[in-house]
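Note to self: keep these together.
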Amino acid sequence: MNLETAIRKAFDDAYVKELLKKGYFLGSVFATTKNLDKEVSSWIFHFFNSKKKTIVDCFVNKEVAIGEETPAISELKELKIDKIAVTIEKALAIVKKKEKSKIANVLVTLHLKEKNLVWTINVITVGMIANTYDIDSKTGKILEEKSTSLMSTITGKK
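Structure:
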């Protein structure tokens, strides 16, 4: 399901409409997929309330489900989704051109990073390496690229 369809489903939901009336706003978007070719089938929208410092997750796939209100880990800024020129499909295609490793999972986040609306795509390889790509959602330019060994993170060894 593309992001636009998921947004429409979420924002048409009666509970989400109530959240918006209570001061919540869309702070970030998350999705997973098994590889860079596979369409995202479900999305998680993080609605943030800056006064209460809480988040409510909205799970969107065939249906819309709402999670419980929980304390936010960090402050979020409101996403302006209408400014996205690079779709999730295009962002994944950009990463696919660079990524040569065998993939175990792909984690995708749309969020504000230093005032830019950014797709952060974490490619988790079968070798337990996280290859992270930050892609500008307006231009498709890769803003940052890095690799992290998940095993060294877990064991504390480099």
